[in-house]
Design goal:
Blueprint: H1 13-30, H2 61-66, H3 72-93, E1 103-105, H4 112-119, H5 131-138, E2 144-152, E3 156-163, E4 168-172, E5 175-179, E6 185-187, E7 196-200, H6 214-226, E8 232-236, E9 240-244, E10 250-254, H7 259-275, E11 282-284, E12 291-292
Parallel strand pairs: 1-3, 4-7, 7-8, 10-11
Antiparallel strand pairs: 2-3, 4-5, 5-6, 8-9, 9-10, 11-12
Length: 293
């Protein structure tokens, strides 16, 4: 009896397995997904998305209080913060930090009460007092030339003023005023000896209500330096500026220009008049040559 053997051909499983793997990879990357747009969300080797770590939250006061890991440094910082807030609140609401007076110095012609009132700081918190603004406000007083304001805690204010010193006694229409070296006109508050006197018959020597004409001021100062014996000047239209000589003569300058030339003429005319007996009433230096009568 013959025997027949059916021999099953050998199957090579390895190529089919490789084909299946390639197909799976093709299907994996062929499916549309937004993951490829962001490299951070690509699938991991296990086929799951990588979880991004959550950002750390800022530690607030409430978060710190809820933590059990409180230490002494945290408590100390909290105490200092509360103490600073309490001190700040007290400094704003306490009456100890409100201004109800000031130390005023350097004033002779301006009353202390007027200076304090002009400062405008009564009843203000010391934190709202601006020294520069107060000093500028004080210079608006007619006798105050400059001012310095100092502020110290809790509510100490010191005001130091520099007043205008008069060099000319200015008389106009029966009233007396003072004029300092800047030509500022202020009210004469007390009798002063040794001042130069300027009598203005028709207010023509003034530049405005508060200032003398600078040219007239310079002329008066120049004449008094060259002729210290001359202490009285007058201004009157149409003669202009003139002074009274020690001999009693009227010496007319007219305008206040060319004062050095006019003084030279005056010295020449004075010597000539005295050589002839000194009988004169007026010497007019407005013209060249000058004349007298």
């Amino acid at each position: 009896m013959s025997r027949y053997y059916h021999r099953t051909p050998h199957r090579n499983i390895q190529p089919r397995t490789r084909r299946k793997g390639r197909n799976r990879r093709k299907r994996r990357f062929a499916s549309p997904s937004l993951a490829v747009l962001n490299p951070r969300t690509l699938f991991s080797a296990k086929g799951r998305k990588q979880r991004q770590p959550r950002p750390k939250r800022a530690r607030t006061l409430r978060h710190l209080l809820s933590q059990k890991a409180w230490n002494s440094s945290h408590l100390g910082a909290l105490v200092l913060l509360l103490a600073a807030l309490a001190a700040l609140t007290y400094s704003f609401i306490s009456i100890d930090f409100w201004v109800y007076g000031a130390v005023v110095s350097g004033n002779r012609y301006t009353p202390t009460d007027l200076i304090y009132q002009q400062a405008g700081i009564h009843g203000y918190s010391v934190y709202f007092v601006e020294p520069a603004l107060v000093a500028d406000r004080l210079t608006q007083l007619e006798h105050v030339r400059a001012a310095r304001v100092q502020v110290r805690l809790p509510a100490r204010v010191r005001i130091e003023v520099v007043e205008r010193e008069p060099i000319i006694l200015y008389k106009v229409r029966g009233d007396s005023y003072w004029i300092d070296d800047e030509g500022v006109i202020s009210t004469a508050v007390e009798p002063r000896e040794g001042l130069i006197t300027l009598v203005d018959d028709d207010t023509g020597a003034r530049l405005d209500e508060r200032h003398l004409d600078p040219a007239i001021l310079q002329a008066i100062v120049y004449v008094t330096r060259q002729l210290p014996e001359v202490r009285i000047f007058r201004y009157q239209q149409p003669y202009g500026l003139f002074f009274i000589a020690p001999e009693g003569w009227r010496v007319y300058f007219g305008t206040a220009d060319n004062m050095s030339t006019k003084l030279e003429r005056w010295e020449t005319m004075r010597a000539h008049i005295l050589s002839e007996g000194g009988r004169a009433q007026e010497v007019d230096l407005r013209y060249d040559p000058p004349y007298w009568r």
